[in-house]
Write a structure and sequence with these properties.
Shape: elongated
Distance between the termini: 37 Å
Helix content: over 70%
Strand content: under 5%
Number of helices: 4
């Protein structure tokens, strides 16, 4: 169990890691927002239908792959975990 006194330091490291991932993903993909990345408004039934028809496998999978690659390079996740993530979204 972690000591309470370690919590602020671990929280700060986590926030910094998330910030690095956020910035790297945004730089590489142009955005971090699903609407901008997919071109779909997922608040509408039409947008969700298009997502299921083709966009999820064709577009979203590539962004998840990119995110997993960035995390793997940073040492945040193991390569085998990255492959599991990619398989699950196809």
């Amino acid at each position: 169990m972690q000591k309470e006194s370690e919590y602020p330091k671990k929280k700060m490291r986590t926030m910094q890691a998330v910030g690095r991932f956020y910035n790297a993903f945004k730089e590489r993909c142009g955005s971090i927002e699903c609407r901008a990345l997919s071109g779909l408004d997922l608040t509408t039934s039409q947008g969700r239908q298009k997502l299921e028809q083709s966009v999820k496998a064709r577009i979203c999978a590539n962004f998840v792959r990119t995110g997993a690659q960035l995390l793997a390079r940073s040492g945040t996740i193991r390569t085998s975990s990255r492959l599991d993530i990619i398989r699950k979204i196809k």
